[in-house]
Design brief:
The protein is built from 7 helices and 17 strands. By secondary structure, it is an alpha+beta fold.
Length: 356
């Protein structure tokens, strides 16, 4: 074989080897791409591995949660039949006989301020007359000097300022009376009525009645019965709401008037029975059964062994042990008394798309 042809054959072999190597490298880089799953396949796989919660359905416009008995047990959900609320005919309050000394001191301050207003008014009337005469005399051919006219005017201005100050002091004492004792007693103090006179002279006593925490009386009863040591009874007459709350009891306070008795002294504690209007009988809903959403109170009713429906309530009437007395619930309603918050979370979790 000729040397030239041998060299040509070698070159062909080298080129063939290079082409094979290049093809192999290209296929190696393309192989992961060809074998990788598509984006659609990834989404299908994700959907197959994450199943959406199928616990919530909509029936008659209401969300219905379906949980098996095992799910309820795992989630700590417990239910109970609603108990009817007891009939309420009266509320027991805590009464305290108030010391009339602060009321007496305020009444004396008001009388003093009113007396100062009367005195200043009289002085102003005199100085006003003198100033008016001085102006006429000065205008009529200068029968008085300019200094005399200015003196009369100065006395008038001073007396007018004194009257303004006295009236301001009187208004301040009146405002203090209303703030400390309320509008009813404040007005009685300003007008010096027989009510204030009897309280100052201790012919009557003020009794501050504080309701238990959470108790609500829509319309305070006009009369109430006070008991001392569970035996002696006396009738109280309603006056007005109190302007302060007892920090120990944290309940609504009312002011009543009690006739003076030998057993009554400032600082005595009384048991007070306040009759209340009949309220529609309802059921007792424990505090743990209530969930709050957008400022509204809700409970979960168990409609059958495996389903729950959220139901709005009006927690207007407090019940025993921080519970609520709720009206309008179905007879023998079964309430989720434990795990209500979990049910609320489950209801809204089901509304979140799987892609999120």
């Amino acid at each position: 074989m000729m040397p030239g042809s041998l060299s040509f054959n070698r070159r062909r072999v080298v080129w063939a080897v290079l082409i094979v190597l290049a093809l192999g490298a290209g296929l190696g880089s393309l192989l992961p791409v060809l074998l990788a799953p598509s984006k659609a396949e990834d989404e299908d796989k994700a959907r197959s591995t994450v199943s959406p919660p199928a616990r919530v359905s909509v029936k008659n416009g209401f969300a219905v949660l379906t949980l098996s008995a095992a799910d309820q047990q795992d989630s700590g959900i417990e239910t109970a039949r609603a108990r009817p609320s007891p009939a309420q005919e009266s509320v027991v309050g805590y009464g305290t006989v108030l010391d009339p000394a602060p009321l007496t001191e305020l009444a004396n301050r008001y009388l003093e301020a009113a007396s100062q207003v009367q005195t200043a008014t009289a002085k102003l009337a005199v100085s006003r007359g003198a100033f008016e005469r001085a102006k006429l005399l000065y205008k009529d051919q200068r029968n008085i000097s300019t200094a005399q006219l200015q003196g009369a005017q100065g006395s008038f201005e001073v007396d007018k300022a004194v009257l303004d100050a006295a009236q301001s002091r009187l208004s301040s004492v009146a405002a203090s009376a209303r703030q400390a004792w309320g509008s009813v007693l404040g007005a009685a103090l300003i007008d010096r009525t027989a009510l204030i006179t009897r309280l100052i002279e201790r012919a009557d006593y003020l009794v501050k009645v504080t309701l238990p925490p959470g108790a609500v009386v829509v319309t305070p009863p006009e009369t109430a019965i006070a008991r001392l040591n569970g035996a002696t009874e006396m009738q109280l007459t309603y006056l007005s709401p109190a302007t302060t709350m007892d920090p120990r009891l944290q309940g609504i306070s009312l002011l009543y008037r009690a006739p003076a008795e030998a057993v009554l002294l400032p600082g005595l504690n009384l048991q007070v029975l306040l009759p209340v209007d009949a309220v529609e009988r309802g059921v007792i809903v424990p505090e743990a059964a209530v969930v709050w959403l957008q400022g509204q109170a809700w409970i979960y009713l168990r409609t059958d062994p495996n389903t729950f429906v959220r139901h709005e309530i009006a927690p207007d009437h407090p019940g025993p042990d921080r519970a609520y007395i709720v009206t309008g619930l179905p007879p023998d309603a079964e309430i989720a008394v434990r795990g209500a918050q979990m049910l609320l979370s489950e209801e809204f979790r089901s509304q979140v798309p799987i892609e999120d």
